[in-house]
């Protein structure tokens, strides 16, 4: 029996403002993770392991940072003569052209292209979460359900639930959907993976766009998903594995700490489901005499002469003798000079921490922006942003 024709649309065009300095010069899906990966690697690796070869990536903010990483899709087996990876930038020339104002608006603008492809199932996913999921298995369940949309759901912390689309269910049937509610009725959240039956979904989207008029569509959760739920056409697929939305600085930091746990909830090197990425050109990591490294991820091209505990060092990081890095995430090219202390912090590309400087402390996570140079003895307090936002 022929496999179902499945199309995956990766929504990779958001501004990512909640990641603050980390997205000033790059798209959110291009933000590094786990030393050698980028956030977009997770949905693309899921596509590969799901046996899905038709993948479209919608880009918008800082598209060059993402396009450079995607290249021709080879790391995810998407460099194909027919199908494979296609990047969808904003465009002009039709009534669908222009700057997308939300996730539903992205889908509406690409609706003609989706109709022309004519998939059996359309899987729409975000690119700002860390997880492993077989999209094909969820799509096949959806196709046999009679639903118009299947929402993949997960449990979230009660104090964080208002950041998500929250559902109530009766078995698999979604009985209520609320988008980022002030007072969530449950802690069951959609994890931004949706499987749609294309034709009725796009027809419904056209009607919503006509009603919206010049204001245009916003996000999927504003109109489309509530309408499908109200008509009894939404179902839930409960996801039991590890899932972490890393759309904020604290969540981004915490996801790294999760990966560093002695028994991590997600194995990025699982031989049955490895996360693939565009390969780098770095030599093996070098630990110099006197170095102390415990409970950390140390990428190729790093040099460590100091103390590193429970931290992630991306390619090209240098920690000089006498320097200490604890509970922190250092992105490519960071240098921590002798005597400096970095604790509970995220340092963006190329940051230079001067001798005897201090970054972070007990409390909220500190964040230092790309290529910032901290003078000798400088202090960036716990929870601070450097440079400070204007």
TrEMBL record:
Name of the protein this chain belongs to: Glucose-1-phosphate adenylyltransferase
Domain Nucleotidyl transferase, residue spans: 9-260
Family per record: Belongs to the bacterial/plant glucose-1-phosphate adenylyltransferase family.
Keyword terms: Glycogen biosynthesis, Nucleotidyltransferase, Transferase
Matches recorded under InterPro entries: ADP-Glc_PPase (IPR011831), GlmU/GlgC-like_hexapep (IPR056818), NTP_transferase_dom (IPR005835), Nucleotide-diphossugar_trans (IPR029044), Trimer_LpxA-like_sf (IPR011004)
GO terms, biological process: glycogen biosynthetic process
GO MF: glucose-1-phosphate adenylyltransferase activity
Domain of life: Bacteria
Organism: Klenkia taihuensis
Domain (Glucose-1-phosphate adenylyltransferase/Bifunctional protein GlmU-like C-terminal hexapeptide): residue spans on this chain: 293-363
Family annotation (Pfam families): Hexapep_GlmU, NTP_transferase
PANTHER family referenced in this protein's UniProt entry, alphabetically: GLUCOSE-1-PHOSPHATE ADENYLYLTRANSFERASE, GLUCOSE-1-PHOSPHATE ADENYLYLTRANSFERASE-RELATED
């Amino acid at each position: 029996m022929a496999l179902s024709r499945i199309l995956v649309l990766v929504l990779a065009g958001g501004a990512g403002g909640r990641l603050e300095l980390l997205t000033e010069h790059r798209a959110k899906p291009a933000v590094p993770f786990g030393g050698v990966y980028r956030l977009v690697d997770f949905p693309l690796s899921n596509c590969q392991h799901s046996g899905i070869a038709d993948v479209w990536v919608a880009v918008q903010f800082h598209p060059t940072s993402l396009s450079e990483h995607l290249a021709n899709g080879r790391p995810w087996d998407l460099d194909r003569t027919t199908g494979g990876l296609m990047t969808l930038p904003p465009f002009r020339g039709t009534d669908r052209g222009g700057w997308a104002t939300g996730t539903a608006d992205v889908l509406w603008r690409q609706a003609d292209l989706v109709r022309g492809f004519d998939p059996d199932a359309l899987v729409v996913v975000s690119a700002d979460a860390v997880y492993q999921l077989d999209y094909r298995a969820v799509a096949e369940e959806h196709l046999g359900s009679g639903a118009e949309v299947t929402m993949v759901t997960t449990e979230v912390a009660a104090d964080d639930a208002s950041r998500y689309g929250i559902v109530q269910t009766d078995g698999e049937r979604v009985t209520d959907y609320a988008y980022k509610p002030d007072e969530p009725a449950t802690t069951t959240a959609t994890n931004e993976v949706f499987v749609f039956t294309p034709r009725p979904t796009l027809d419904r989207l056209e009607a919503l766009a006509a009603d919206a008029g010049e204001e245009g569509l916003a996000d999927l959760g504003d109109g489309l998903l509530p309408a499908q739920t109200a008509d009894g056409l939404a179902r839930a697929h409960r996801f039991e594995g590890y899932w972490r939305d890393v759309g904020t600085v604290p969540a981004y930091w915490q996801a790294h700490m999760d990966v560093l746990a002695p028994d991590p909830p997600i194995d990025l090197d699982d031989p049955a489901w490895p996360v693939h990425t565009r390969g780098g050109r770095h030599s093996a990591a070098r630990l110099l005499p006197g170095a102390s490294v415990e409970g950390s991820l140390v990428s190729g091209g790093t040099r460590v002469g100091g103390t590193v505990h429970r931290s992630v060092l991306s390619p090209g990081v240098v920690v000089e003798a006498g320097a200490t890095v604890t509970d922190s995430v250092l992105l490519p090219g960071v240098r921590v000079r002798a005597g400096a202390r970095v604790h509970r912090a995220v340092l963006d590309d190329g940051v230079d921490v001067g001798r005897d400087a201090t970054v972070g402390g007990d409390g909220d996570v500190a964040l230092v922006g790309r290529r910032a140079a901290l003078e000798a003895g400088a202090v960036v307090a716990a929870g601070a942003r450097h440079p400070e936002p204007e």
